Amino acid sequence: MSAAPPDNDVLWARGIVKSHHGTPALREVSLGIREGEVLAVTGGRGSGKSTLLGCLSAQLPVDSGEVWFNSSPVHTLSRAGREKLRRDRFGFVGSEPHLVPELTARENVALPLLLAGTGNRTAYGAADDWLERLDVADCAKHRPVELLQSQRQRIAVARALAPLPRVVFADDPTAPLHREAQDQVLRILTSAARSHQLTLVLATHDTELANKYADRTVALVDGRTPAPPTPVRRPATTTATR
Ligand SMILES: Nc1ncnc2c1ncn2[C@@H]1O[C@H](COP(=O)(O)OP(=O)(O)OP(=O)(O)O)[C@@H](O)[C@H]1O
């Protein structure tokens, strides 16, 4: 039996190995993520960023190695156990918003709360609150098809943050956006995470954005972390967005 992870790491991984149909994606990756930290995972195309986020967020089982969340093992959980962990504790934002097309923006944001058993009044109240924080309150009654890509992506961020998960995983969340919209989405995402003490794990190939918004970066090259994590300065702005 291995040693338990450090107490102040909300997520901790040791020696993760993961292949996709025989193609190695992660080769012995180890890292710790502190409570409330904004960590950027950087690297070029195919370096293993999505696979690492998938393993840390219990979406993908590891081939070998260990993943711990809050000092509990994730790598030994069953599929159902991993699903429950994801549903109860984690939030996700991808490069595509994947909103439910039949629902309005407000209904999309409220949906995870309603599915978790939150009452209508509280769920829709939280949805209104987060849509306002993300500056898309005027989109509340519109369906995704009626909205701009940048608006849809902000709604996806609101949907991920509304249940106040312990950890938010954002996999290239600004990939389809223009520079100005990229900055805006990342500014809101990171300041909302900081003001609510949420841990944020952000995958991006854009080192400039990573250095600007993350507390720390971990670079992946060909499924490995070749250098120790580099501390970067924490942005001066840490205030809430409302
Ligand atoms: N479902 C899959 N089936 C087969 N190979 C895969 C699969 N997913 C990822 N890979 C391979 O695993 C390696 C790591 O991929 P991954 O998507 O994790 O990298 P990435 O850094 O997120 O890349 P990108 O920036 O392009 O999204 C690559 O060689 C990729 O081709």
UniProtKB/TrEMBL annotation:
Span list, region Disordered: 222-242
Lineage: superkingdom: Bacteria
Matches recorded under PROSITE patterns: ABC_TRANSPORTER_2
Keyword field: ATP-binding, Nucleotide-binding
Ranges annotated as biased composition (Low complexity): 233-242
Gene Ontology MF terms: ATP binding; ATP hydrolysis activity; transmembrane transporter activity
Family in the record: Belongs to the ABC transporter superfamily.
Protein name, entry field: Putative ABC transport system ATP-binding protein
Native organism taxonomy: Bacteria, Bacillati, Actinomycetota, Actinomycetes, Kitasatosporales
